[in-house]
Amino acid sequence: MHKENWDDLRFVLAVADLGSVSKAAKHLGVNHATVLRRVASYEEQLGTVLFERTAHGYQVLTDKRDVFAAAREAEDALRAVQNLGGHARPLLSGTVRVTSTDTFCHSILPEIAAQLQSQTNQLFIELLSTNAHVDLGRLQADITVRPAQKLEDDLIGEQAAIMGFSAYMSRTLSPEKSNDWITLVGPLSRSQPANWMSKSIPQSACVAAADSFQTLCRLAVAGLGCTFLPSFIGDAAPELKRLETQAPEMTVPIWVASHSDLAQTPRIRALRAQLSACLTDRADILRGKP
User: Fold this and answer.
1) Pick from 50, 75, 172, 267: most CB atoms within 10 A?
2) Beta-strand runs (E) in the chain
3) CB count, 10 Å around CB of 58?
4) Exposed/middle/buried for 90, CB within 10 Å: 0-12, 13-18, 19+?
5) Measured in Å, how far apart are the chain's first and last C-alpha atoms?
6) By C-alpha distance, which of 33, 15, 12 is closest to 24?
7) How confident is the prediction along the chain (290 residues), in pLDDT tens digits per residue?
8) Tell me: domain 1-89, CATH 1.10.10.10, correct?
9) Are 270 and 147 in contact (CB under 8 A)?
10) In this protein, which residues make up the domain named HTH lysR-type (predicted)?
């Protein structure tokens, strides 16, 4: 492949990573028109369109996932050649998009991101916070950190820790509110606490609901009632105290995974291993052990 092809590939991967020509231009230190020209040049060489242009940016076309998987392998192969030539580039480098729930993006991952970036100034972590499903098959993210009973079939990864749940109430909750409950809706309605509450708490005792553990925590702090939270969220709120209930122990594995098309890419695999190690270091906190 000619040098021009390698250079074009760098621009194409930046757009795929960041989902935007403007962001790719800023990241690469060039102007908007240069990125557009390089992407068009690469698509012309391949004889196909790689991206779907939408109002929200550039998304990799579903049937072009293999092209990008091969492109990343080519990028890693070139990096290996450079390493052999004495121009080694750290594995923890480049742009990596990590998606997780708002709970992890607010409470756990920022500290871990800072810890990883302290090891190298060549790593750019894009943290994508959502409780909704992110399609890693469309390369919307490189790595997911998710609490789930099991991984989807097209994901490859490892269990890094276990997340525990506990019931909480405000330390100043009035006696007349102590039997009121804040329930879990939306994506959280499939969780173990939501299932237990739907069977054990009468509807008449449910006074509010939220689709985010961060929001549930604030509602509990405000004194609306009792609720279930990941233990590391509830324990970190000084305004809350644990509540004894008849609920069984509730836990869920925490996975660090990538789509199978990207899972073996050295750069992605290296960061996945580092993320897993950082989460494992926090295993007791995540489990909610006293």
Assistant:
1) 267
2) 51-54, 57-60, 94-100, 123-129, 143-147, 155-170, 181-184, 206-210, 227-230, 240-243, 251-259
3) 20
4) middle
5) 58
6) 15
7) 444 456 677 788 888 888 888 888 887 777 788 888 888 888 888 888 988 888 778 888 888 877 777 777 776 666 665 555 544 445 677 788 899 999 999 999 999 999 988 887 778 888 989 887 666 555 567 899 999 998 888 888 999 999 999 999 999 998 888 899 999 999 999 999 999 999 999 999 999 999 999 999 999 999 999 999 999 999 999 999 999 999 999 999 999 999 887 777 777 888 899 999 999 999 999 999 87
8) yes
9) no
10) 4-61
The verdict on domain 147-290 having CATH code 3.40.190.290 is: yes
Vertex 61 angle, CA 56 and 63, to 5°: 165
Sorted by where each begins, the domain ranges of the chain are 1-89, 147-290
Q: What is the 3-state secondary structure (H, E, C) of 242-272?
A: EECCCCCCCEEEEEEEEECCCCCCHHHHHHH
Beta carbons within 8 Å of 61's beta carbon, 6+ residues apart: 49, 50, 51, 52
What are the structure tokens assigned to 35, written together?
């990125």
**Distance (Å, whole) CA 213 – CA 235:** 13
Residue 273 C-alpha from the chain's centroid? 14
Residue at token pair 């237990």: 196
* Strand partners of residue 59: 52
